Amino acid sequence: MVIIMENTHNIAIIGSTGSIGTQTLEVADSNPGIKVLSLSAYSNIDMLEKQIRKYKPVIAAVIREDKAKKLKLRVSDLNVKIVSGESGLSEAATVNTADTVVTAVVGISGLLPTINAIKCKKNIALANKETLVTGGHIVTALAKEYGVRLLPVDSEHSAIFQSLQGFSHDDVKRIILTASGGPFFGKTKKELENVTLQDALKHPNWDMGAKVTIDSSTLVNKGLEVIEAKWLFGVDASKIKVLVHRQSVIHSMVEYRDNGIIAQLGAPDMKLPIQYALTYPERLKMTGNELDFAKYASLTFDEPDTDTFYALPLAYKAAEQGGTLPTVFNSADEAAVDLFIKGKIGYTDITRLIAEAMEEIKNTPNPTVEQILETDKAARENVYGKIL
Ligand code: NDP
Ligand code: MG
After folding, report:
1. 9-14 and 100-103 as β-strands: parallel, antiparallel, unpaired?
2. Is 60 exceeded by the pLDDT of residue 5?
3. 21 CB less than 6 Å from ligand 1?
4. What is the 156 CA–ligand 2 centroid distance (Å)?
5. Cα(110)–Cα(354) distance, integer angstroms
6. Quick check: CB of 163 below 6 Å from ligand 1?
């Protein structure tokens, strides 16, 4: 009898307590070949403690020092190293027995641990799009230098990656990035003025963390994804077309020079892109959440309304000009979304504050990591300084 063993995948997860982090753990639950060696949170030590007791990682990081101290006491009966702060996050991302790091933290906080993990020759299962948006030129060059893979977790990028398998990149005419359009599709600028936080947190198809859900409603998320796709697939932003597809069944497509289009379809469920990034090039069995075509009366396609949702053209401008402009786009948004969640600004202020920061902060070409982090700080100060 021949026994076929699935490969073993040793993973570290940074941001294990979030939406992508917990879904990654669910994927590990149904794949005995996936071993979890490292976990991390910003401050949610209640959930992290449960994860540590279940998955028995060798290391766990908590960004907040006070919370890390508490967690250390709580898990003193276990053989797990608890580390804290930014350096702790990088230590958790570079644990020597892991071969892949899932970057499931939110925001620019993903940049440094990802760079450090690449330098330790880890493959990156990349959910944190902000990493490529802010440091795409550095991260893609390092991945090449250290011979590691950047495997997309974002559903659109996973779809593009899957649609590229077996074809030559040279034959690609353009990438068609689908967008759900978010909860405010079809609304006018005037109607957006009265939108509340609760309205913005209601995504039509996906259940995600708060920041990415709000970004989906403003189309900032799609803008970040255009920049992410530019770096992941080495194409100019002018070759990336955003198409609104309300049902989120086609996760994205690649159009080749013979006009043939290859698409990847499926139910809106992050487990497939997560699993594919962890087990690539294998396609493992997945139970549940199959796509039932009969449930969809029609699949629709629309052009994005770039006049109302002008964050999208701002992202194209950032992608085309490069330098630190994409960092300003990203970090001004992080600050503005934070202010919107705290009730300090209105919904339409988010994109306005991003546009202003992009006008007011000088662009530095080909920035170093230090310059990116300085720009991040400047963009946040630009936004917070106008409101607080
Ligand atoms: P969540 O907000 O649900 O989770 C974020 C995770 O990061 C949590 O573990 C959180 O810890 C931790 N965290 C928060 N702030 C920091 C920080 N400053 N430093 C280090 N860790 C931090 O986010 P999502 O899972 O929704 O998103 C994660 C990333 O994946 C984002 O970049 C997003 O754009 C991307 N993505 C998400 C998708 C989704 O379906 N959710 C789809 C495609 C991409 P704690 O719990 O303690 O706060
Ligand atoms: Mg996406």
Report:
1. parallel
2. no
3. yes
4. 5
5. 20
6. no
Q: State phi, psi for 247 to the nearest 5 degrees.
A: -85, -10
**C-alpha to C-alpha distance for 68 and 71, rounded to whole angstroms:** 5
What confidence tens digit (pLDDT) does each residue in 13-49 have? 999 999 999 999 999 999 999 999 999 999 999 999 9
- What are the tens digits of pLDDT across the range 355-378? 999 999 999 999 999 999 999 999
- Radius of gyration of the chain, Cα coordinates, nearest whole angstrom: 20
| Residue 130 alpha carbon, nearest atom of ligand 1 | 32
Which ligand is nearest to the Cα of residue 159, counting in written order? 2
H/E segment holding residue 114: helix 111-119
* Spatial distance between the Cα atoms of 253 and 264, rounded to a whole number of angstroms: 7
C-beta 206 within 6 A of ligand 1: yes
| Strands 100-103 and 123-126, sheet pairing | parallel
What value, to the nearest 5°, has the Cα angle with vertex 339 and ends 377 and 364?
25
Answer whether residue 1 shows pLDDT above 70: no
Query: What would the pLDDT profile of 165-205 be if each residue is shown by its tens digit?
Result: 999 999 999 999 999 999 999 999 999 999 999 999 998 88
Kindly give the number of the ligand 1 atom that is closest to the alpha carbon of 16: 9
Take atom 40 of ligand 1 and give the residue whose Cα is closest: 208
Instruction: Indicate the residue type of 253.
Output: M
Tokens in use for 75?
């898990």
How far apart are the CA of 62 and the centre of ligand 1, in A?
A: 13
Omega of the bond prior to 281 within 30 degrees of 0, cis?
A: yes
Length of the chain (residues): 388
Element (H, E) at 40: strand 34-41
- Does ligand 1 lie within 6 Å of residue 338's CB atom? no
The label of the residue with tokens 């259940």 reads 207
- pLDDT tens per residue, range 203-258: 888 889 999 999 999 999 999 999 999 999 999 999 999 999 999 999 999 999 99
Which residues have C-beta within 8 Å of that of residue 45, sequence separation ≥ 6?
Answer: 62, 67, 68, 70, 71, 74
pLDDT band at 6 (very low <50, low <70, confident <90, very high): low
Structure tokens at 348: 């339409």
Please name which of 232, 227, 236, 235 lies closest in space to residue 133, comparing C-alpha atoms: 227
Helix, strand, or coil (residue 243): strand
Does 84 sit in the ligand 1 pocket, CB within 6 Å?
A: no
